[in-house]
Specification:
Length: 260
């Protein structure tokens, strides 16, 4: 193997696997001592293509806290997906290539001060929020944090117990009351659960009412992560409501990340 290529990544074993549904799994890799990241960033993971050689790489947001000794990831399994179909066949002990450098700018710190932080996700777009919600600074920074997770079927609402446990974490227990979790199911939603796509819930005001909070450019800050259609449609809807992207030269109200 070319030494210059080899030095760009390490090879790490899978420490733990959980299959939430036929198309969803979480897994943990051993974390190299020198690996650093910020909550909301992603890693590049690689797998060999097989006997013909070559590699396939994909970006995965970290679910884990920056202090954890492992790196946790949340993945959808696409039956014919070049990466995820191979990943789904692996077991604990199998090895995955890990790029040495974390990447991305999907960071809550890019947002200026505000009262309410809205974390909007579809599917595995939930992943970076699990890391962000293990950052004590964000619990202290905002008065309210709303995590809205939209899926097609109720069985895809992963990590519910973990999310509930966050409110009692000893590092920010005094702020635990600030978090609201709003599950959204668009097909055969259980009674009392929101049942429309996030852009529609923003447009008709149901998301505000469910959280018991009023949105305003003065108070509200948004993070958007999920499939490209959701990210684009949610961004457009928020622009109609008077919000704008946050940029280094011009702080705004929202940051976004495509989960695909």
């Amino acid at each position: 193997m070319d030494t210059a290529i080899e030095e760009k990544y390490t090879v790490q074993p899978i420490l733990w696997l959980r299959r939430w549904a036929d198309n969803l799994l979480s897994f943990r890799l051993r974390r190299p001592d020198a690996y650093r990241f910020e909550p909301g960033q992603f890693a590049r993971l690689g797998l060999p293509l097989g006997e013909h050689g070559g590699q396939v790489w994909r970006a995965y947001s970290m679910c884990s806290a920056v202090t954890d000794e492992y790196l946790e990831f949340y993945s959808i399994v696409v039956p014919d997906g070049q990466f995820s179909s191979r990943l789904a066949r692996l077991q604990v002990g199998a090895e995955v290539m890990l790029d040495k450098k974390a990447m991305g700018f999907f960071l809550a710190d890019r947002l200026p001060a505000g009262k309410d932080l809205w974390l909007l996700a579809t599917g595995t777009g939930l992943a970076p929020y699990l890391s962000i919600l293990q950052d004590p600074a964000q619990w202290r920074r905002f008065e309210h944090i709303v995590l809205a997770h939209c899926v097609r079927r109720a069985e895809e609402l992963s990590y519910q117990d973990f999310i509930a446990s966050l409110c009692e974490h000893p590092l920010w227990e005094e702020h635990g009351h600030k978090l609201q979790y709003l599950p959204i199911v668009t097909r055969d939603a259980p009674e009392g659960v929101l049942d429309e796509r996030i852009p529609a819930l923003l447009a008709n005001g149901r998301l505000e009412r469910a959280a018991g909070l009023s949105m305003s450019p003065e108070d509200s800050r948004f993070m958007i992560c999920g499939n490209p259609a959701m990210v684009e449609d949610t961004h457009r809807q928020l622009m109609k409501m008077g919000y704008r992207m946050s940029r280094q030269s011009a702080p705004g109200h929202l940051v976004l990340e495509n989960g695909w």
